[in-house]
């Protein structure tokens, strides 16, 4: 534990705490929900299934990569949260992960920024900036992050956003030209490399860190393979009548929910736990990426789209 956490960083949190009212606390909890992984795991499938399949593919893959990186950085640095440093901190929430970088600030910066890039409107950029800044502020108000935590999350999110804007068109075009086997090979290789360098998977392993890494790696594995398959067996159009979009989202979401909790029960206690967790989330990623679109096409909740041979 460093002086930055017991010194000025702690004083900033205590200052926020000194004027925190029930209304401010409630607003902070709203932003907590709007920046959580659960929120994005509802929003991004909605975009993929019901708004714009191409955008949904790109944002979902970006989000999963971001989640893995955030967990790896947290587990690598192992910095405490404010309420773990001082009993003076009256935190509204308890988080089980380490502090820096803030996942909420990182998620908000990256995904809102990517949506603003897609919209190419000044108001979208302004909304993205305010969303990220208010998200960072709310984490300090709730007493769950130091200033350096949210600053780190904003910075990492901005760096990833810049890399996305720079590299995504080139990478997508390259992947689209590859065969199915090559695309799957890229996904599997990336997951193996990420697993090898994940701090949460290096012994002695913390259970929470191992589960976080396994979730991200499994989701990325299933999602990547699923997207490569979807372009060939289930190239669907995310548009259509509003009621078809609503039914697609409801059906897809119910199955995601069933897989997440049903497989959690089915795989409970099985060893090695990491392998079963990766399999569990790989199956969820496969369903979201290719299983659901195939069902939508089969029962005519969506029309076919001509997206060419690739997955990008």
Low-pLDDT parts are none
How do the SSEs run, as a string of H and E? HHHHHHHHHHHHH
Strand content: under 5%
Shape: globular
Task: Give the quaternary arrangement of the chains.
Answer: single chain
Number of helices: 13
> Structural class of the helices, strands and pairings?
mainly alpha
Biggest pleated sheet:
none
How many DSSP-defined strands? 0
| Rg over CA atoms | 20 Å
- Alpha-carbon distance between the termini? 44 Å
Helix share, percent: over 70%
Total number of distinct structural domains = 1
**Average pLDDT taken over every residue:** 91
Question: Can you tell me about this structure?
Answer:
The longest helix is centred in the middle third of the chain and has 31 residues, at 147-177. The protein has helices at residues 3-6, 8-18, 22-34, 37-50, 53-77, 82-85, 103-119, 122-141, 147-177, 180-197, 207-233, 242-266, 273-298. 75% of the residues lie in helices and 0% in strands. The chain has one domain. With 312 residues, it is mainly alpha-helical. It is globular, with a radius of gyration of 20 Å. Helix 7 (103-119) runs antiparallel to helix 8 (122-141) and helix 10 (180-197) packs antiparallel against helix 11. The N and C termini lie far apart (44 Å). It has 13 helices and no strands.
């Amino acid at each position: 534990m460093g002086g930055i956490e017991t010194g000025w960083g702690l004083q900033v949190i205590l200052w926020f705490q000194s004027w925190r009212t029930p209304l401010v606390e409630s607003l902070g909890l709203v932003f907590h929900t709007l920046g959580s992984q659960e929120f994005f795991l509802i929003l991004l499938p909605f975009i993929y299934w019901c708004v714009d399949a191409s955008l949904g593919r790109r944002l979902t893959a970006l989000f999963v990569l971001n989640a893995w990186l955030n967990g790896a950085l947290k587990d690598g640095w192992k910095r405490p949260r404010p309420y773990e440093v001082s009993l003076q901190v009256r935190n509204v929430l308890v988080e089980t992960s380490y502090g820096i970088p803030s996942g909420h600030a990182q998620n908000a910066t990256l995904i809102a920024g990517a949506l603003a890039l897609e919209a190419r409107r000044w108001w979208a950029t302004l909304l993205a900036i305010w969303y990220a800044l208010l998200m960072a502020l709310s984490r300090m108000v709730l007493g769950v992050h130091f200033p350096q935590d949210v600053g780190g999350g904003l910075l990492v999110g901005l760096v990833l956003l810049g890399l996305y804007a720079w590299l995504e068109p080139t990478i997508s075009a390259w992947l689209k030209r590859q065969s199915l086997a090559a695309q799957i090979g890229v996904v599997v290789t990336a997951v193996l490399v990420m697993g090898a360098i994940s701090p949460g998977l290096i012994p002695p392993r913390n259970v929470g860190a191992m589960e976080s890494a396994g979730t991200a790696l499994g989701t990325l594995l299933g999602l990547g393979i699923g997207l490569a398959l979807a372009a060939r067996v289930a190239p669907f159009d995310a548009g259509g009548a509003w009621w078809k979009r609503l039914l697609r989202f409801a059906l897809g979401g119910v199955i995601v929910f069933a897989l997440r909790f049903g497989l959690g029960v089915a795989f409970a206690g099985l060893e090695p736990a990491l392998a079963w967790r990766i399999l569990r989330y790989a199956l969820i990623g496969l369903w979201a990426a290719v299983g659901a679109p195939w069902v939508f096409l089969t029962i005519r909740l969506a029309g076919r789209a001509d997206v060419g041979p690739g997955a990008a």
